[in-house]
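Module 6 notes. Inverse folding takes a fixed backbone as the condition and produces residue identities as the prediction. Think of it as a translation problem where the source language is geometry and the target language is the twenty amino acids. Below is one complete input and output pair. Work through it position by position during the lab.
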């Protein structure tokens, strides 16, 4: 079984960029579908919209590959070795994905902490005013 799977699973360069771009596309589409429910559109139009969104996802993955190729070309100018440029482009892609993932995790936590501190400060000032 191991020999059959050996070499079958490969990393596709630019896949991370494509996933990030499709995440943006899916966020837009989720917001669009909430509005779509209110419009009571015919089923054929909904199917057409879904096909358009699938094409948008495919375009995002192609753009991800293009971004990776651009990064690799920039490293190829500097290092003059295809293998080294490929390696550094993969590292750059991984770092960008990790940073965006960390930002996606940290920013909502910071916003919630900021909102909690605003709520606590207003309740404290209200309680101080009530004591006078």
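Target side of the pair, the amino acids:
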């Amino acid at each position: 079984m191991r020999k059959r799977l050996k070499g079958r699973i490969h990393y596709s360069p630019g896949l991370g960029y494509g996933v990030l771009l499709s995440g943006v596309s899916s966020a837009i589409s989720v917001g669009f579908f909430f509005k779509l429910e209110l419009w009571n559109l015919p089923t054929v139009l909904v199917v057409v919209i879904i096909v358009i969104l699938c094409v948008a996802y495919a375009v995002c993955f192609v753009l991800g590959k293009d971004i990776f190729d651009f990064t690799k070309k920039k490293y190829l100018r500097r290092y003059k070795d295809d293998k080294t440029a490929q390696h550094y482009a993969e590292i750059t892609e991984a770092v960008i994905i990790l940073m965006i993932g960390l930002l996606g995790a940290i920013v909502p936590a910071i916003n919630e902490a900021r909102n909690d501190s605003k709520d606590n400060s207003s309740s404290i000032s209200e309680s101080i005013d009530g004591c006078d």
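Reference fact for the lab report: The mean pLDDT is 78.
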